[in-house]
Every structure is written in C-alpha cells, then in structure tokens.
C-alpha cells in the first residue's frame, strides 16, 4: 500500500504499480504524472464516483482495480485505454454501462455486486474476454451479441434476475467454469438428505485454519453426547461473493453427500448466536497440502504452481482418477461444481486427492437431458485444463502423450465430441 504523501513527495516517481486507499473522493493529479510508467493501478476502498478526462493519459495501464467505491456509471473514458487487460469494479453502485464503454482489449472483467440491469450489446466486441464476473447484479438477460465472445472460459452470473439460460451460452466452445445459481430461471432440484443440526454449544472453536471468499474455517472440537471429535467448522460471511451466495454453496455441499475424494460434511451449525450459517466438516489430516495456487493476473484462468514443481505420470494418474470420479459423482447428483481447479484440490503424500470448495456450484435438473449433457461437458473441459496444467510439470514418460490426447479430447471446442466423466474414468483405468 502506498500513500498520497509519498506520491506528492515524488518518492513514487517512475513506479509501475500504485495502490492508494485513503477514502479519496478524487484522484490526485500526481497519479497522471506517472503516465509514462504506470501499468497497475489499484484505487479500491475509496469514495470515487467518476474518472477525470486526464485518465486517458494513462496509456500504459494494464490492470485497474476500482472496487469498493461509489461509481454508479461505468466510466466510458476507459474505452480509450487500449492496453487495459483487467478491470475490476466489485462492490460499487453501477447501474448503467453505455455502449462502447467496455475496453475491447480486456481479458478479465469484474463487475460483481453492483446494480447492473443490462449489459451493452457492444460487449460482443470484446473478443479477448476470458473471465467475466457478474454475480450479484440485476441482469434480466444476457445480450445475444455476447455469444461472439468465444474466448470466455469462466463466467459468473449467479444471483441476478435472469429469466432464461441462453442456448448459446451452453454452446460456448471454451466455457469451462460456470456458475448461475439464484436466478429466476434456476429451479433447484435438491435431492439431498437433511443433515443433522449440530448445536453451537457443542462446538468448541479453536484456531482459524483458513479464510475464503465465502467464509472462515476453524478447527473445533465437537463435544457430542457420544464422543469428543476434532472437526472443521466453516462459518459463512453471508455476503455475495465473486461466485455467488453462501446459501447455494451450502446446499451444494449437502447434496454432494459422501465420496472418498470429497471433504466430508457432518452437519449444519445450529443456533449460532449471530444467526450465521455454517457447516461442520471432517478435519483434513495434516499430511494433505494444496496441489496448486489460483490463477495469476498473467494466467487469468489457469492455475499456477510452486517453483520447481514436478509430477510423475503415476502421480498425475492418481490425481486424475480421483477427480474424474468426483466429477462423475457430482453430475449424477445434478451438481455443476463450477470451480474444478488444482487450487481447490488437496493431495496427501501418495497424491490421493481431496476436493472441496463449492462456492461456485450450481444445482441443475439432471432429468433435463440437454442441460445435463452440456453441464457435464463444460465441467469436462475444466477437467481437461486441470490435467493439462499438471502435465506442464511432468517428468518425461511414455504415457504423457496418452494423457495429453485425453486433455485434447476434453477441451475439444466441438462440445458434442467431448467424453463424459464415465468415459474418462474408463480411459484412465487402462493406463
């Protein structure tokens, strides 16, 4: 984090990255003196409502974050900046986006938690878009012109007022990570057994284990009438996330039920003193570690891995078989996970995977054969990307080509030619 004092004193001269959060109501003029070098600008957490005309001088700007401000109109001045790659306006008050105001250079657009009722038809000109975050708005439809954005791989449209799921959306050739729960057209088909409610007074909360977009996870001891058991407790924050609503995540976790490679859900948190929603889950053994890290600004939709990462084909096969079996299990229950990634996967010392994080999950009607077909094939492409990411770090092996060919089939842009998870499992078993 930088300060306005540093900026005005000239200490930040020639910087390529600037972050200011001081409840600013206007952008300091000194920012524009950095036009020759500035590539990343983060002005989140201020009280900005507009951008001045001088903003067009920031010709080298690639990444712009203006989240948690007070914009009501998407600034059309941004369309003049041809190098913009990522723009984020999460948690503003945006109601209107004028035609031609979205920069056509964007790969990543974040408009989560605003008041947008419609997107401009000109979004169809944004051919480079890969990642589009629109959850928590008031959209009633997606413009048909958006079908031209064939590079979109990740799309979040949960918690809007969408009346239909467009046919063209299901047929987008590279779509891999989709979330659309909590829309008027979305009819939940919950078939899960009801979970036991575990009284809050029986849970002895200990240290925090982690925090995600939707909630915080704590280690706890469950002091039941039968036994004292170490567990994990996830308490939801209650606010809209980039993926959707915590309630949808909780329903999907419950419906997913039990599987050897899923984090076990033991019950619901009951009688929380603040009325918060929560899940009680099995405590993950200490030998498990994260398989990968979330995408970077550069990779956009693909996970990143630690330096010097290496996998053998045997290790990748263990991971792939486990995750493919999870994919088959979920889609048999009418669940689109929506976030099938290495960064949502834990592995033990034998590379046996444990999968979780249902924040982007969508429950769909598996009896609707057409929708079920496309939902599974969209997730199959995500699986192909997942394994393809791992193969970049593989030790030389004669079976690498076989797995590479499977990835190619999973990522086939002719969606009808992709295998389902059952077929993937059969192909993996041969190796």
Topology, pairings included?
Blueprint: H1 4-8, E1 17-19, E2 40-42, E3 63-65, E4 86-88, E5 108-110, E6 131-133, E7 154-156, H2 167-170, E8 177-179, E9 197-199, E10 203-211, E11 215-223, E12 228-236, H3 246-256, E13 265-270, E14 278-282, E15 289-290, H4 313-332, E16 335-336, E17 345-347, E18 353-355, E19 362-363, H5 369-391, H6 400-410, H7 421-430
Parallel strand pairs: 1-2, 2-3, 3-4, 4-5, 5-6, 6-7, 7-8, 9-13
Antiparallel strand pairs: 10-11, 11-12, 12-14, 13-14, 15-17, 16-19, 17-18
What does this structure look like?
By secondary structure, the chain is an alpha/beta fold. Among the domains are: 86 residues, Phosphorylase Kinase, domain 1, CATH 3.30.200; 142 residues, Transferase(Phosphotransferase), domain 1. The protein has seven helices and 19 strands. The chain has an eight-stranded parallel β-sheet. The chain has a six-stranded mixed β-sheet with strand order 9-13-14-12-11-10, with helices on one face. It has a three-stranded antiparallel β-sheet with strand order 15-17-18. The termini are far apart. The relative contact order is 0.08. The model has no long low-confidence stretch (mean pLDDT 94).
Quick tags:
alpha/beta; Phosphorylase Kinase, domain 1; Transferase(Phosphotransferase), domain 1; eight-stranded parallel sheet; six-stranded mixed sheet; 18% strand; globular
Biggest sheet features:
8 strands, parallel
Give the CATH architecture of the domain at 289-430.
Orthogonal Bundle
List SSEs in N-to-C order.
HEEEEEEEHEEEEEHEEEHEEEEHHH
Quantity of strands, as a count: 19
Measured distance between first and last alpha carbons: 50 Å
State the helical fraction: 10-25%
The CATH class of the domain at 289-430 is identified as Mainly Alpha
Tell me the fraction of residues in β-strands, as a range: 15-25%
Shape, per Cα inertia axes: globular
